[in-house]
Design brief:
10-stranded mixed β-sheet, two-stranded antiparallel ribbon, single chain, 350 residues, 12 strands
Length: 350
C-alpha cells in the first residue's frame, strides 16, 4: 500500500488543512503532522521540506518522493525607477513562465498574480492572449506567486489582485481553492475584502461566484458601452451579450451586497468618445458599482493607441456628470514591461 502511495505524486500545497490531515493518516503518519507542515508552507513560506526542522527526516524524505513541494523560481525581475513597482517572471515546475507584479501603495503592498499560462479569451488589446492558452495554474502555483514576492521583499502582502495573465473564471475550481487557502486563518490570512478577482465576463461563472458566499471584490472587464464595440474588442462578447453580463453582475450585487468594479480600457478613437461615456452611464445606472478607467497599454502586435490624457479626463467628467463613481487607474511601472504578458513574450522569444 505504502509503495503505491509513494508512486503517486500529490500536491499538498493545494490542500486544505483538513485534507492534509487526512493525507497524513493515509500515508501512515500522525494527523498532527499536518498542522506543522501546513504552517511551514503557508505561514513561514518555506521552499523545501529540509527547512521543516520539527518534522522528522524520514517523513521529509517520504514527502519529497510522493508530494514534491510546488515552488516557483524567479527567472527575471524588473524594477521601475519611477515608482518602485516590481515585475516578476516566475518559472513553474514544468518550465512554463508566468508574470506577477508588486505595487506599493500607502494602504500596503498589493500583488497582481496570473491564473493561467497564456489566455484563450483573445481580447484585442492584451499581450497575454497573443499565444493562446497553455494551461491553468494550480492553486499552489497561484499561491506561490504571492509567497515568493512576500519572501523576496521581506514585507507583508496585504492585497491580492487576480488580474494578471489568464481568465480566472476559466480556471474556476482552482481559483476558488486558491481563495480558500490564501484567506485561511491558519495560513497567510489575507482578508477576503482585500482580494479582487477580474473576469472578462464568463456569465455562468459570475452566477456561480455569487453563490460562494465570499467577501471578495469582483472586477468585470467591460471595455465598451455597446455590444457592437465590445465584439470588436473582446471575442467573449460573441458568447455573452453585454446585457447578459450586466444581468449576471446585477445578480452578483443582489446576492453578495458587494460593490462591483467595472474595468474600462480606453482605446483612442474606439471607445473613448463623449457618446460612449453617456451610453456607459446608461448601462450602469442603478448598479452598486465603480468604474476604473485604464489608458490602454499599447502593444506592438496591435494597432490600438492609448487615449490622450485630456480625453481620459473628459470621459471621467462625463461619467461623473451622470452620477457614476469613477476613477482613473494610476499607471505604475510605465518604464518596465507594463502590459500583461509582455515580459513573458520577450523571454519566450529569447
Amino acid at each position: 500500500m505504502e509503495n503505491k502511495l509513494v508512486e503517486k505524486v500529490t500536491d499538498i500545497k493545494s490542500m486544505t488543512l483538513d485534507e492534509l490531515k487526512a493525507y497524513m493518516t493515509e500515508i501512515g503518519e500522525k494527523p498532527f503532522r499536518a498542522k506543522q507542515i501546513y504552517e511551514w508552507i503557508h505561514v513561514h513560506l518555506v521552499t523545501s521540506y529540509d527547512e521543516m526542522t520539527n518534522v522528522s527526516k524520514a517523513l521529509r524524505e517520504k514527502l519529497k518522493e510522493c508530494a514534491p513541494l510546488t515552488t516557483l523560481v524567479q527567472e527575471d525581475l524588473q524594477i521601475s525607477r519611477i515608482d518602485g513597482t516590481r515585475k516578476y517572471l516566475f518559472c513553474l515546475p514544468d518550465g512554463n513562465m508566468v508574470e506577477s507584479v508588486l505595487m506599493r501603495y500607502e494602504h500596503g503592498n498589493s500583488v497582481c498574480i496570473s491564473s493561467q499560462v497564456g489566455c484563450r479569451m483573445g481580447c484585442r488589446f492584451c499581450a497575454s492572449t497573443l499565444d493562446g492558452l497553455v494551461r491553468g495554474l494550480t492553486p499552489a502555483e497561484m499561491l506561490d506567486q504571492v509567497y515568493r514576492i512576500q519572501s523576496d521583499i521581506g514585507e507583508r502582502v496585504s492585497n491580492v489582485v487576480v488580474m494578471g495573465t489568464g481568465e480566472p473564471m476559466d480556471n474556476y475550481d482552482h481559483l476558488i481553492r486558491f481563495i480558500t487557502l490564501l484567506t485561511d486563518a491558519n495560513g497567510l490570512n489575507i482578508s477576503q475584502r482585500n482580494l479582487t478577482v477580474s473576469t472578462c465576463g464568463i456569465v455562468p461563472r459570475i452566477y456561480d461566484l455569487a453563490k460562494e458566499n465570499l467577501q471578495i471584490t469582483l472586477a468585470v472587464s467591460l471595455h465598451a458601452s455597446s455590444q457592437e464595440t465590445r465584439m470588436k474588442l473582446m471575442p467573449i462578447a460573441k458568447s455573452y451579450d453585454i446585457h447578459e453580463v450586466l444581468d449576471a453582475v446585477s445578480d452578483y450585487i443582489d446576492t453578495t451586497k458587494r460593490r462591483v468594479t467595472f474595468e474600462y480600457s480606453l482605446v483612442g478613437g474606439v471607445n473613448d468618445t463623449d457618446e460612449d461615456a453617456k451610453k456607459l452611464a446608461g448601462l450602469l445606472d442603478g448598479l452598486l458599482c465603480h468604474v476604473n478607467l485604464i489608458p490602454v497599454n499599447p502593444i506592438k502586435e496591435r494597432d490600438y493607441v492609448q487615449s490622450n490624457h485630456e480625453r481620459v479626463v473628459a470621459f471621467q467628467k462625463k461619467l461623473e456628470k451622470f452620477g457614476i463613481n469613477v476613477t482613473i487607474r494610476r499607471e505604475l511601472g510605465r518604464d518596465i514591461d507594463g502590459a500583461c504578458g509582455q515580459l513573458r513574450r520577450r523571454h519566450m522569444r529569447g
